[in-house]
Design goal:
370 residues; 2 domains; 12 helices; Methane Monooxygenase Hydroxylase, Chain G, domain 1; globular; single chain; five-stranded mixed β-sheet
């Protein structure tokens, strides 16, 4: 994948029913989603928004703080209007809590191990919205603007570019979905002084961890893995593995760890061969990475529905989201049927083709009966 492909993945929303929309329709839907949050969702949770424009500016400032640990006071200060009007502390105070309850904010908590020698770690969470496409839209980020590293949104200090922050947010979204299925937790590590930082720490039930660095670059150098080496020296065998996710598959310099592209099969949850059990007959092989990302995003939305039920959200809203998830899965299924027909069936010979056709018709029958 080229850098442009990763930008396209960032801008393609993971919300069910939106991922296949054209650019203009997608922008309108994302705008409508954020407007609903301000105009309706806050009210449904019992909070009257007296300054809707201020809330929108606060959400935009939070989007600008993606993949940073910027303080909420600095986010409030960055949400200054065109005429210099600032949000009051009292007005901004409930925004964080309510937006987390609405599953709009999805921050990564600081990893807090029990080991004394790692006690001096920052406790600040790293900011992320539930979907990097929503963050990009709030900031008015287009494909060209991200690739050209244009200045967008309120001034928030970050290490690196906005594209790099959104790339980390995309990787974080995928990792959290897969970690949940493995009953693992995801945090980030930052020393109190800020001298050491690791983007993602995945900790399993046995308290062993996988450390992940996210780099928007094609070539990984020694200084990119210094923090990973440091962590290995601190916790030894409790570090199960260390991974650098970058924009191409490449070797790490002389350390034996893994380097993965963001679309690498390292994150694959589908068994080898998928639904076509003969290895040479996997119809969707060329589109496998896109399929995995789409399914990961759908899984993320299922988590959102679970949270809606936990919070006793209005039943029709829950049913609407479930319908959108089913529609997204149906599109995946139709794509698989198409690829199965074009490859698994067409490329088979004789009796095997008959068998593949029977499998295809049986699969269609199951989808129609559902």
């Amino acid at each position: 994948m080229a850098l442009e492909d990763y930008v396209d993945e960032i801008l393609a929303s993971g919300f069910p029913g939106l991922s296949n929309l054209g650019d203009r329709a997608l922008r309108l839907q994302l705008d409508g989603y954020s407007a609903r949050v301000v105009d309706r969702d806050f009210i449904e949770l019992g909070h009257q928004v007296r300054n809707p424009a201020g809330l929108r500016r606060w959400m935009t400032a939070y989007a600008a703080a993606t993949a940073t640990t910027t303080s909420f006071e600095k986010i409030r200060a960055a949400a200054t209007g065109d005429e210099g009007e600032q949000l009051s502390k009292d007005a901004a105070r409930p925004y964080r809590t309510i937006l987390e309850r609405l599953w709009i904010l999805d921050p990564v908590p600081a990893w807090q191990p029990t080991r004394r020698h790692l006690s001096r770690l920052s406790a600040a969470s790293k900011h992320h919205l539930v979907d990097p496409a929503l963050a990009a839209r709030l900031l008015g980020a287009t494909r060209e603007a991200l690739l050209e590293d244009q200045e967008l949104g309120p001034p928030i200090r970050r290490d690196g570019t906005l594209l790099g922050a959104l790339f980390e947010s995309l990787v974080t979204l995928c990792v959290r979905v897969y970690a949940q299925s493995a009953e693992a937790t995801v945090g980030h590590l930052r020393t109190f002084s800020g001298s050491r930082e690791i983007d993602l720490i995945v900790e399993g039930p046995a308290k062993r961890v996988v450390a992940i660095e996210v780099k928007l670059k094609r070539t990984i150098r020694d200084d990119d893995v210094n923090a990973l080496h440091w962590l290995q020296g601190q916790i030894g065998d409790e570090l199960l593995d260390a991974v650098v996710v970058n924009t191409r598959r490449s070797r790490l310099p002389a350390n034996g760890w893994n380097s993965r592209s963001a679309s690498s099969s390292a994150w694959s949850l589908i068994p080898p061969g998928g639904i076509c059990y003969s290895p040479p007959m996997v119809g969707y092989r060329e589109d496998k990475e896109k399929l995995l990302k789409r399914l990961a995003r759908v899984e993320g939305q299922v988590r959102g529905v679970s949270k809606m039920v936990e919070e006793e959200r209005y039943c029709i809203d829950v049913l609407t989201q479930i319908g959108a998830i089913q529609a997204a899965l149906d599109k995946v299924a139709l794509g698989l049927l198409d690829e199965h027909t074009r490859h698994c069936v067409v490329e088979a010979d004789g009796d095997e083709r008959v068998e593949k056709m029977d499998e295809l018709m049986a699969a269609v029958g199951r989808l129609v009966k559902r």
